[in-house]
Every structure is written in C-alpha cells, then in structure tokens.
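Same chain as my last thread, 250 residues:
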Amino acid sequence: MRKSIVIGASHGWGAHLASRLVEEGWNVTAVGRRPKPELPDTDALRYVQADLTTAHGYEAVERELQEQAPALVVYNAVSYGPRDATLPPLDELEATFRLNALVPYHLLLNHVEKQSSAQFCTYVVTNSDSIYHANKYSGIYAASKAALRVLTTALASACQSHNAAAATLLLGPLADEENFEKLQEIAHRTGADMDAVTRRYLARSNQAYVINSFLSYESCVKNVLTIANLGRDANGMLCKLDGGSSGSLI
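reply #2:
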C-alpha cells in the first residue's frame, strides 16, 4: 500500500483529500493543527496534530516525512493572515509568509535531500488564484502565495537531480463551508436564489472567472491523483483548477 502525507488536513479540502486517498488505496498520515480533525476512523488513516508555526510542530512533521518514506506529500497548510485593510504588525506579516511559503519550501526541500533514492516521491503544493488579483484585503495572503509559487519552482529544480517531482495545484474558489455559509446568509437576507447569489459573487470576485459555481473538492482530488500518477513528468507542473481567474493569456 502506497504511503502519503497530507499536511493541513484537519478540516475542509485537506480532510476531504486525506479521506479520498484512503478510498483510493493509500495509507495516509494526515497532519493538522486542530485537536479533533474532521476525518473518518480507519486503520489506513493516522492523524498527527502539529502546529507548523512552532519549532516543535515543524520537527514533528519533519520526523513523519523521514520515518514514513511517502510516495506522495501534499502541502495544504495555510494562514490567511490579516483580512482587513488596516496595516498589521510586522510579526503578523512574517508569520503568514512563514507558514504559507518558507515552511513548505524548507520542509520539502529538506526531505528531497534526505530521502532514499529508492523511493520516488511526488510533492503537490496547494496554491491559490489570489496571486492574480490581490487587493487591500488579500494582499499579504496573495503575496505569500506568489512567493510559494516561485519557491515551488525552485523545489522542482532540486527534484531534478533526485528521485522526486514537485508540482503546484493552483485552486480557484472552492465549495467549502465558509463560502457556503457566507452566501447562504446573503441569500436569506436578500431573498435571492442561492445559485443567483453565487453567480453574482463569483462575477464580482474576479471578472475573468468562466465558472458559475464553486469548484468541488472531488475535482481537486482527481487532479492530485493525476499528478501523483505522472511520475517524473509532473516535475515543475502547474495544474490550474482556477475557473479561468488568471485570464486568457496565462
């Protein structure tokens, strides 16, 4: 049974991915910050609580990577940082960049250089279409994700001389609980149809979107599985499931 590690898997899309990988026959180690994850109880899935913003949490995940010798690692941990237009303290900005860009690069590059050459490993780094349309509310988060995109390319360069591949899964608006609850509240308050509210929200979020509904978790899973099955051909790959948000020329 192939081993995988999903980092940032206590809830939402990460938890869904960990559960689906088990269904696809993988042995999964799910890593998350929450003490009680939204994960099924199965012998093929093990949960490790670790906060990657701390040295202890980083070291715990580092040990898992070395001991498990996974064939697939998905980095999905994220910090959205300050989400208002005020200027936050510098340490808050640094914390967002640390978790979103510096930690995945350092953690995965360290594993690339230490892993056994006998075990091929695919690294899938989750990124966001926010890098295409930052504003005063999302600028810090978007900048950290743009840095992650560049660092993942550097990681792929390192993989070239090892038995590994690194790819980016760049996602647009997901059908997660937070988005659903926000739009449901608007629909209830205005008396509008939920589908109409969703279409209006997406059109205002990014005029380049060519989708009328949020992207499903299942479509994301299929893309991860495709990347994992490509072997070396996936190295340096940018898989965009972004609803067209980057525009027509990118």
